[in-house]
Amino acid sequence: MASLTVFDLLAMHDFVSDLPAGWLHRLALLGKPVHHPAGTRLFREDTAAKHLWLLHSGTVSIDFHVPGRGDIQIERVGAGSVLGWSWARPPYLWRFGAAVIEDMRAVAVDASRLRELMTEAPDLGLQISERMLDVVAGRLQAARHRLIELYAYPGTPS
């Protein structure tokens, strides 16, 4: 993956691969390839949401903190997934937390610059917004299922 450009990595990611090349080039200017080893805490709830990650490999646990119980995993995401949606709406604070379970490689997109680009290019902004809505809906559904699992089977390990 080291020899691939950010544009190449975006062109291979399902979230944006079908966008026009001109838009991908503009998005590529906002991103950088990143690697985070297993055990890395990417972010916690209520901290500044500064990136959108497009995962190419690895596994990340999405969680939320429950006083007295610790971090409760609600979903695992991997290659081809999108991580982060809290950057898209004020107050730009993470609604969940995330930790790397298996070494992760991704494109990290600067959220502030992405919001600016979405304003400058409304057609692109609409495409990104619609896709992010799908991500949000999926995360909320996963949280719902996890809460049902926890309440229906209180002894389920976190």
TrEMBL record:
Alphabetized CDD domains for the sequence: CAP_ED
Annotated Gene3D superfamilies: Jelly Rolls
A Pfam family per the record: cNMP_binding
Protein name as annotated: Cyclic nucleotide-binding domain-containing protein
Positions of the Cyclic nucleotide-binding domain: 15-84
Protein source organism: Paractinoplanes brasiliensis
InterPro entries linked to this entry: cNMP-bd_dom, cNMP-bd_dom_sf, RmlC-like_jellyroll
